[in-house]
Design brief:
- This protein has ten helices and ten strands.
- α3 runs parallel beside α6.
- It folds into two domains: 160 residues, P-loop containing nucleotide triphosphate hydrolases (Rossmann fold, 3-Layer(aba) Sandwich), CATH 3.40.50.300; 67 residues, no CATH class.
- The longest helix has 16 residues.
- By secondary structure, it is α/β, with parallel strands linked by helices.
- The protein binds adenosine-5'-diphosphate (ADP) and magnesium ion.
């Protein structure tokens, strides 16, 4: 198992946001956690990445317990987060944003081949390479945020609500891109989303998170048929 989360509890002061959730992701899978605003999705991803300290629970990455490691150690093990709203450095160019993510990689050949690879995946970014990130459209910034997470060859890509703030037309494109990263490039992805339909469509498996608790799990195609999911998340 690539990622195994057991009884994870996340609290902010007296407010417990995540009440002991367990789930897992196998290498090669695309898994999503769907849930409404405030359900605890970002808290879970930030807990896995080491940006918030869990109150209790265990997180295993490739069988190693990582919950006590600092974020940079987890990053070095190959965990990458595409943060909510695709945060990029606004005053750095596209290329500089990517170079920051490659920091530490000294081998010029490796740097060039990684850049070539992400520019091949996101041709629009190659065209914008010397433009400041703040001048990109929302969809382009989201692509840059994904490219930045990808450029250092992650073992597991954590994606926080990639659909937020994107025009409906772009949501489809970005989700198709995530699907092809998984199916064609073999990248393991854990998505958290409010957009249940778009994420279930591309996922192998999914979990439903309600106010800090996992209430359902299963194959994405089966969850799409569940009454509870259809009513609450698909509006059908
Ligand atoms: N830094 C924080 N301090 C206090 N409360 C927080 C913080 N981050 C999130 N919360 C609270 O935790 C709950 C879950 O939030 P979050 O994980 O952001 O949910 P989601 O990503 O599903 O919208 C919410 O009630 C939110 O207000
Ligand atoms: Mg969130």
């Amino acid at each position: 198992m690539l990622l195994e989360v057991r009884d994870l509890v996340i609290a902010y002061g007296n407010l417990e946001a995540v009440h002991g959730v367990s789930f897992e992701v196998e290498a090669g899978e695309l898994v999503s956690i769907i849930g409404a605003n405030g359900a605890g999705k970002s808290s879970i991803l930030n807990g896995i990445m080491g940006l918030v300290e869990p109150k209790a629970g265990a997180i295993f990455f490739e069988g190693k317990e990582i919950a006590s490691l600092p974020a940079h150690r987890r990053a070095r093990m190959g965990l990458r987060l595409v943060p909510e709203r695709g945060v990029v450095f606004p005053y750095l160019t596209v290329l500089e944003n990517l170079m920051v993510a490659l920091h530490g990689e000294r081998d010029r050949k490796i740097v060039n081949s990684r850049l070539d690879w992400v520019y091949g995946l996101f041709p629009i970014l190659r065209e914008r390479t010397n433009q400041e990130a703040r001048t990109l459209s929302g969809g382009e910034q989201q692509q840059l945020a994904i490219a930045r997470a990808l450029v250092s060859s992650p073992r597991l890509l954590l994606v926080d609500e990639v659909s937020m703030g994107l025009m409906p037309k772009l949501v489809g494109r970005v989700f198709n891109l995530l699907q092809s990263l998984n199916r064609e490039q073999g990248i393991t992805i854990l998505l958290v989303e409010q957009n249940a339909l778009a994420s279930l469509r591309i996922s192998h498996r999914a979990y439903v998170l309600e106010t800090g608790e996992m209430v359902l799990e299963g194959k994405a195609e089966d969850l799409m048929k569940e009454e509870r999911v259809r009513k609450a998340y698909l509006g059908i």
